[in-house]
Amino acid sequence: MSPMRLIILLVAAGAAIGAALLVRGMSGPSSPVAAPGEPVVIEKEVEVSSTQVLVARMDMRVGSLLTPDDFEWSDWPEKAVNAGYFTQERNPDAIEELSGSVVKVALIQGEPIIGSKIVKKGETGFMAALLEPGLRAISVEISPETASAGFILPDDKVDVILTYDVEVVTERGVRDTTVTRTVIENARVLAIDQLFGEVDGSPTLTGSTATLELAPKQAEVLAHSSRLGSISLALRSVADSDENDGVATANTQLLNGGDEGGGVKVFKNGSISGRS
């Protein structure tokens, strides 16, 4: 082979190799090239350890009674876990233990639950946290016969019925009679001291005291009524609980000796105690 032909073959082979390398470089991934003067940012994934923390499943206002559906376990960065948080590792039964508590400080969705923002059932301040702002808790004595045979439970709505003896003055003279009237409507039951007992030989839940949520004047009506005669609680339908926007109403005229000013004198222990 002549030297000239050998040179031509070597040049052609070199050109072919160069072209192959060029094509390979264009088809491969391009490396980012930082512009002059710009910092080079290197991204690196870092694995962060997490733990399960008990959080609020939804927004909850002050006074809300907590149920198991109001909680959920959520992943939380382990280094950001506060000592006051309830973790699944330390407190596996936290949902069951905290159910029935009352929200003392408003909670937002996804916020970790801490002890200072809730009041557990039985703790000091539980009833105060359960009350709506401006309202009062007042108790009244009841019996199975005057409280729907034990079917009234906390958060139910009831009417308060007063039954008392009166002396009616008519044109024909004076006669004794018994008067029954509803003095408070749509009152919320906060608590009832239920005990297991029997009614007509059948096991049932009974209570001797009911605690109602009322406005200050309404609480006065209840206290006054309990002195006039016997109190009965009438359970309201759930469908009627939103009547008057769910707010309780009361016959406050009773505090002035009567609601109609007619010739009816209230007798208690043999003496006149007021007018109805």
Automatic annotation (TrEMBL):
Q: What organism does this protein naturally occur in?
A: Henriciella pelagia
What lineage is on file?
Bacteria, Pseudomonadati, Pseudomonadota, Alphaproteobacteria, Hyphomonadales
Taking every annotated instance into account, which residue ranges of this chain make up the domain SAF?
A: 51-119
Q: Which SMART domains match?
A: SAF (SM00858)
- State which gene encodes it: ctpC
Task: Output the superkingdom of the source species.
Answer: Bacteria
Which InterPro entries has this protein been placed in? Pilus_assmbl_Flp-typ_CpaB, RcpC_dom, SAF
> Known Pfam families for this protein?
RcpC (PF16976), SAF (PF08666)
Q: What is this protein called?
A: Flp pilus assembly protein CpaB
